[in-house]
TrEMBL record, chains A, B:
The keyword Zinc does not apply. This is Two-component system response regulator NarL. It comes from Chromohalobacter beijerinckii. InterPro entries: CheY-like_superfamily, Sig_transdc_resp-reg_C-effctor, Sig_transdc_resp-reg_receiver, Tscrpt_reg_LuxR_C, WalR-like. The lineage of its organism: Bacteria, Pseudomonadati, Pseudomonadota, Gammaproteobacteria, Oceanospirillales. The modification 4-aspartylphosphate is found at D56. It comes from the Bacteria. SUPFAM superfamilies: C-terminal effector domain of the bipartite response regulators (SSF46894), CheY-like (SSF52172). The keyword Metal-binding does not apply.
DNA sequence: GCGTGGCTACCCCCTAAGAGGTAGCCAGAT
DNA sequence: ATCTGGCTACCTCTTAGGGGGTAGCCACGC
């Protein structure tokens, strides 16, 4: 398949440049155009061949929300993700109601942001983690970490988590539980997925904070 | 029962000779082997039939602490006593945390040293009197580093620790603090040493338990 | 002036960690 | 009888982590 063509809309040239650099680190994505305000975005959305629009909210001539509305009312259904500093509930809700396919905060980690942009291009609804709670009550498909995450773990996974949370390496855990290191890795991998975490460090902190011991 | 077989690990041949002479004054003990560095010690610990290892800390090819860790991680639980000139808190704590069964200073009186070695071979935890205070602090404070470990950290190291304890990778920390990943690694390395910990996972758990946030 | 500690950055080297995948075995459920 | 979930074990591949070292710059204290 050909590369994903993206329009970046933001009134700060430097920010656009940063996003361009980030996005084009991925060989499958390219910045097909830039716009510095909502009006230009509406224009570009109607003329360029686009797969995804990254839109700022706060812009001078026309803000992102209004631009989104005009784009949609022009019958353009290009995927569009808000990329902004505002974490206000109202902004999030309004953007999604107006037809945004995602809402990301500018202070995300770059590689995380890049991953979300890719997901958005693939058709997923992407939301910054901090906003997941807000979204839970509004959108049905929200992906917030389940409160009963602990009970979803098998007893073996709990064994591993408890040991991991004492700072043990996979090898030490393996020796202690008398299984191979490879098997420990499998359990760690699975429990990370179940808990929605990304590393054993997060798992250890999670375990301590949830009284797993 | 048969005589106690001891491995002496020290990079000074003369010191080894002195210990050998001292130990073999006791008819129930014998020096079953000598090693001049940590690597040799790890090797010997895995092959010789031993009851006790006397290990120096400061050695060229592999220091005693690392040798101890490797021995333990090889699943060898032979009793092991550090025999060194260092009376630094950090060294004592690290050795005991790494699984040492004792920590003796080289400037002890010979007959006193011999008595302690016998005790160690019998299963006791032996500590040079001068270090008793340190040990008391460790035992009462549960696990973890010296009481003033936190205050020994520089402000930058605290920055790193706080961020690390949120599960961030070195790369993420670097981006957040606007330094290179290499520099983050340096700080992590140093704070691990100061806290007597062995991995970022232990550091994260330590941070949570000590309210570093 | 000089040394020291703190922060930064880089080097090399090796191991640990994590994401994929396949697969065998077993117990409990259907 | 077949299926499913859980536990085990192995594979490959890539990145992350951590130990060792050197070094420049700066601020502080002596």
């Amino acid at each position: 398949m050909s590369e994903t063509r993206i329009l970046i809309v933001d009134d700060h040239p430097l920010f656009r440049r940063g996003v361009r650099q980030l996005v084009e680190m991925d060989p499958d994505m390219t910045i097909a155009g830039e716009a510095s305000n909502g009006a230009e975005a509406v224009e570009a959305a109607g003329t360029l061949e686009l797969d995804l629009i990254l839109m700022d909210l706060n812009m001078a001539r026309m803000d992102g929300l209004e631009a989104l509305r005009q784009i949609r009312s022009n019958g353009v259904d290009t995927r569009l993700v808000m990329l902004t500093v505002s974490d206000a509930d109202d902004d999030v809700v309004a953007a999604l109601r107006a037809g945004a396919d995602g809402y990301l905060l500018k202070d995300m980690e770059p590689e995380d942001l890049l991953a979300r942009i890719k997901e958005a291009a693939e058709g997923k609804l992407v939301i910054s983690p901090q906003l997941a709670a807000i979204l839970a009550g509004i959108v049905s498909g929200g992906r917030a970490a389940p409160a009963d995450a602990l009970s979803s773990l098998t007893s073996r996974e709990l064994d591993i988590l408890r040991t991991l949370a004492r700072g043990m390496s996979n090898k030490m855990i393996a020796r202690r539980l008398d299984i191979t290191e490879g098997t420990v890795k499998v359990h760690v991998k699975n429990l990370l997925k179940k808990l929605g975490l990304r590393s054993r460090v997060e798992a250890a902190v999670w375990a301590v904070n949830h009284g797993v011991s």
